[in-house]
Amino acid sequence: MTTETVKIPTLDQLRDVADSLGFTMGDIELSAHLECLLPGFAAYNVVDRMPDEMPVVTYPRTPGRRPSAEENPYGAWYVKTTVEGATSGKLKGKTVAIKDNICLAGVPMMNGASTLEGYVPDLDATVVQRILDAGGTILGKSVCEYFCFSGGSHTSSTGPVHNPHRHGYSAGGSSSGSAALVAAGEVAMAMGGDQGGSIRMPASFCGIYGMKPTHGLVPYTGIMPIELTIDHTGPMTATVEDNALLLEVLAGPDGLDPRQYGGQSMPYREALGQGVQGMRIGVVEEGFGHPQSMPQSDAVVREAADRLRGLGAAVETVSIPMHRNGLAIWLPIAAEGATVQMMLGNGFGFNWQGQYVVSLLDAHSAWRERADELSDSLKNTMLLGQYMTTHHRGRYYAKAQNLVRQLQRAYNQALSRYDLLLMPTLPMTATPLPAANAPVTEIIQRAFEILPNTAPFDCSHHPAMSLPCGMVDGLPVGMMLIGKFHDEMAIYRAAGAFERGVDWKAITG
Predict the structure, then answer these.
(1) d(CA 405, CA 48)
(2) Nearest residue to 264 via CA among 30, 489, 32, 23
(3) pLDDT in tens, 285-322
(4) What is the DSSP annotation of 153-215?
């Protein structure tokens, strides 16, 4: 006898549903509706009995283990394991860390969140499959911030991630562990995610290369979503060549991600030896001098721009006033969109076709019973998102998405005159980690104070890369290069020339 998973509701249960929808129904009317719903519930049980459509897991692995404190000095590893890829390929001999918002089948995943601890994915994300198919060796999962909602490295439920350049200082977030492991030389490459700057912010703080590709260039399939229109994933590496190499492997459509709407992998490494002669680079004045900006850090980036001029590029100052509104435009999309999709929608939400990770959706939905455990930075975001959607009907999310087109046009107009735009990745160098008992205001400030230059390009969708360009008081400074849609080649061309022609650690402020 078949036991049906989807049960027919009682009249009282259906009345509760009707009340929540604002329907006024008597028993006779409600009973009639229940009778009409019986074929619908039968259909749900047909769906329940059918096997799910899942990618095949092809490479053997073990669940791995939580490393000891002695072998995890930066707090950057969540799980250590070894997954060997194909016997040959572009990534043969390369070691890779996978950000812990990315599904690696059979290996625990918690996305920095106590409410997800214990979840084990049942599929490999597309980026994992591509890394393994290319011969890469995955050494484990890197710590990330609590559901990826922090630009600082102090919110993961496993504890803070320390900057390899200075213990007790932020490694940046939310791809905190990935940046720290690359900077410390424990892996050659790592995967990061970027919805407000979460690849570029830790890359800047840790002095490595972090590329946020054009939106949709790299498939997000099998990665826990935050908001479809700002979800990005991309490479974090110690060298420009490794960054270009990993993007060659990652990029291109997989047929499962609705974020993908054009764009193929390119031979990005071919750009590395071309130099910057003949390139035009616009230094965006509005990227400097934010209220929280460190003058020394801004000065280092301007000096780095001068070095590109010395290498043969035409470097000029350009004004894009709209850039100063970019963070304000991004905020309703991130706050309301993430609240509705990632939290109320159990990660995946509705209204798109592609690969849903049903096991992750089920596991993540348990946050409601443990909501007090959420990080302060996430709680703060949800308070804003829920208030605005319930009191203002989502109109500001909608208006912000309309304004994104103006923001795109402002950048595109400048990029019609320049090959690249240039500005500081962040307004400051790495900051001290908040104490465990720090006030909520400090925790939230350290989570969000560094977003003004990175977040606008998540909603505008332009490719943007942070590269190390100097030091202030022994801590790295990041310079961000922004390109035309799907012109990552131009970014790699300039980044490669800078890496080859400039001793970035000698530029100090």
Answers:
(1) 41
(2) 489
(3) 999 999 999 999 999 999 999 999 999 999 999 999 99
(4) S---TT-PPEETTEEEEE--SSSHHHHHHHHTTS-SEEEEE-SSSTTHHHHHHHT-EEEEPST
pLDDT in tens, 22-64: 999 999 999 999 999 999 999 999 999 999 999 999 999 999 9
Domains, the chain, in order of start with CATH, read 11-49 (no CATH), 77-506 (3.90.1300.10)
Angle in degrees, 0-180, between the axes of helices 376-392 and 440-448, rounded to the nearest 10: 80
Cβ neighbours of residue 325 under 8 Å, at least 6 residues apart?
Answer: 403, 407
**478, 468 in Cβ contact below 8 A?**
yes
> What length is written for the chain?
509
d(CA 433, CA 25): 56
For residue 88, the Cα-to-chain-centroid distance in whole angstroms is 29
| Sign of the alpha-carbon dihedral angle for 219, 223, 225, 226 | negative
DSSP code per residue over 259-287: T--S-----GGGGTTS-STT-EEEEEGGG
By annotation, the residues acting in catalysis are: 99, 174, 198
pTM: 0.97
